[in-house]
Amino acid sequence: MAEILMASPIIGVGIMILDMNENVLLGLRVKSGEEVSWCFPGGKIDIGETFEQSAVRETFEETGLELDLKGMQVFTMFIDRAASYTNTTVGLMYKLNDSLLKETVQVTEPDIFQKWDWFSLSNLPCNLFPQTEAMLNIWKDEPLSSQWVRYLIKS
After folding, report:
1. Of 83, 85, 89, 122, most Cβ neighbours within 10 A?
2. CA-CA distance, 126 to 37, in Å (whole number)?
3. What is the pLDDT of residues 36-54, one digit of tens each?
4. CA 24, CA 32: separation in Å to the nearest integer?
5. Residue 5, domain member (yes or no)
6. Domains in the chain: how many in total?
7. What is the pLDDT of residues 55-69, one digit of tens each?
8. Residue closest to 122 by CA, chosen among 25, 22, 37
């Protein structure tokens, strides 16, 4: 009998960081084997981490930005139904309250990110990473394609 191999489910976090002017931090993702796109900091949750702990860790690993765990706020969760495995993303938001923190953002993983930049929510680049685009649509209360199943988070 042939064995069916199935990918393990993935739970990841995406972190929408807003500055004092409601600009959002996006990284130009140039990871080998993927289409070049702009995305939020994020990644897979490690065993034993909370969503917030994972978000703080991933943000630091990818940008060098040290964020306060207490400032992380989960605002959505969604599933990519088009993926060949269960791919769940938890969207978190962090509002910077110190403009000097913006100056600490750096490229720490040059094999994945070419640069980081700040964008107005009304003037975003076109080539967004799919999960980032879904998070932004949810944040701006815009429709999602049928690829995504969204779960509301009540605060």
Report:
1. 89
2. 9
3. 999 999 999 999 999 999 9
4. 25
5. no
6. 1
7. 999 999 999 999 999
8. 22
Q: In this structure, is residue 4 part of a structural domain?
A: no
Q: What is the CATH number of the domain that holds 83?
A: 3.90.79.10
Six token digits for residue 150: 């969204």
The answer to the question of residue 2 being in a domain is: no
Task: Tell me whether residue 118 is exposed, middle or buried, using C-beta atoms within 10 angstroms of its C-beta: 0 to 12, 13 to 18, 19 or more.
Answer: middle
If DSSP codes are grouped into helix, strand and coil, which group holds residue 2? coil
CB distance 19 to 119 below 8 Å: no
- Please tell me the number of Cα atoms within 13 Å of 2 on its side-chain side: 3
Instruction: Return the pLDDT at 38.
Output: 98
Flag whether 125 is in a domain.
yes
Q: How far apart are CA 149 and CA 48, in angstroms?
A: 25
Paired with 79 in beta bridges are 88, 149
